[in-house]
Amino acid sequence: MKVTMIGSGYVGLVSGACFADFGHDVVCVDKDAAKIAALEAGRIPIFEPGLDQLVASNVAAGRLSFTTDIAAGVSGADAVFIAVGTPSRRGDGHADLSYVYAAAVEIAQAITGFTVIVDKSTVPVGTGDEVERIVREANPDADFAVVSNPEFLREGAAIDDFKRPDRIVIGGDDPRALEVMRQVYRPLYLNRSPIVEMSRRGAELTKYAANAFLAVKITFINEIADLCEKAGADVQEVARGIGLDNRIGAKFLHAGPGYGGSCFPKDTLALLKTSQDYDAPQRIVEAVVAVNDNRKRAMGRKVIAAMGGDVRGKTVAVLGLTFKPNTDDMRDSPAISVIQTLQDAGATVRAYDPEGMEQAKRVLSEVDYCGNAYETMEGADALVIVTEWDAFRALDLERVKGLLSQPILVDLRNIYPRDMVEAAGFAYTGVGR
Ligand code: UDX
């Protein structure tokens, strides 16, 4: 199969490299000439474990290439995946579909022979119909079908998620297109990964419903955590107690500073817009968005309370800036609100993150960025863990105590047992315990 990815960002690059690894002939296209030049030179523009080797080995095997020339990439392709960004539109929260529609026009003009146009970008229900209309209008002779195939990759675990998916969703009803999709995903059909074929609209909505449900789950346990804190219970015990019920499931029940990242915040907002358009209110998701927004600043206030209520002139050491570990992504990271709340209250912030420092510098100013975890603590009045990188799980607490001017640890990810930290002489604050 010849497979083309339009958009060589996170989703396009990971998916393209994995399809090449399946044995397909893959071209990744991007308008950004600097990005394509970097990829051709073997430099991967994002941090994703394992991606550099996967790209290198498939380039070396002649199965993966990069180009800025969309026509060359699309010509002769069996399947063309649209994997461009759909950011929140400034002002109204709707998904901005301009990149998707622009890609549709360019694909239409370059199609040769029967081509499946696969929408992998996260797009509101009905977008497939519009892409179909646009392609037909731009090239009335084109022989094509439009399919929806949402991605469920988690940053930091994307290659594994691609190769060992919980499920693959394919939305469309054209038999020729479905046959091409079965060939494209053949290794996963053969190893009996669950593949769900459904209507195109169903597939489009599945993506939003999945992300919204996960956001609900996180926000639910976060609110239960607040109740545990006040009622004298431990949310980790409660999460385990409910998670062992198969109907609930143990995953995504870690209380913390609120969800962030490139998907949940944007997709929940876009789902609310769609629900308004169709007059089918999603009140649970509305509440989740509001609760999660409030939570991030509330976590800053939690730190201030742990430091005695007044942080003017004090210094706070923050470990972990990215929205979760194993990524350099700062988008909607809770660390941004936590740090800004501390700064607004008059504190100085020192910070360290294993991969996110460059991205953090673009969004957080007046932070003293440090070279490692221990350097961050030197002379600080409290230590706050915002993101649960493995490197922060086994800190030498004696050394930490020696570096801090006061032994205060605020653990917003509950990675330390309270009794151990208290036995080491710290005042400990977790989430919901
Ligand atoms: C998510 C979805 O998981 C993925 O299927 C979809 O394709 C894209 O969006 P991602 O944004 O990479 O993936 O991160 P994820 O691991 O889902 O975490 C999202 C946020 O929720 C992070 O801020 C994380 O810290 C938070 N989270 C997650 C919790 O606070 N508690 C949990 O129990 C789980």
Automatic annotation (TrEMBL):
Pathway: Nucleotide-sugar biosynthesis; UDP-alpha-D-glucuronate biosynthesis; UDP-alpha-D-glucuronate from UDP-alpha-D-glucose: step 1/1. The active site is at residue 263. NAD(+) binds at residues 30, 35, 86, 122, 155, 266, 331. It is an enzyme of class 1 (oxidoreductase). It catalyses: UDP-alpha-D-glucose + 2 NAD(+) + H2O = UDP-alpha-D-glucuronate + 2 NADH + 3 H(+). Residues 317-418 form the UDP-glucose/GDP-mannose dehydrogenase C-terminal domain. The lineage of its organism: Bacteria, Pseudomonadati, Pseudomonadota, Alphaproteobacteria, Sphingomonadales. GO terms for biological process: polysaccharide biosynthetic process; UDP-glucuronate biosynthetic process. Belongs to the UDP-glucose/GDP-mannose dehydrogenase family. Its EC number is 1.1.1.22. Pfam families: UDPG_MGDP_dh, UDPG_MGDP_dh_C, UDPG_MGDP_dh_N. This is UDP-glucose 6-dehydrogenase. Keywords: NAD, Oxidoreductase. GO terms for molecular function: NAD binding; UDP-glucose 6-dehydrogenase activity. Substrate binds at residues 152-155, 207, 252-256, 260, 324. SUPFAM superfamilies: 6-phosphogluconate dehydrogenase C-terminal domain-like, NAD(P)-binding Rossmann-fold domains, UDP-glucose/GDP-mannose dehydrogenase C-terminal domain. PANTHER family: UDP-GLUCOSE 6-DEHYDROGENASE TUAD.
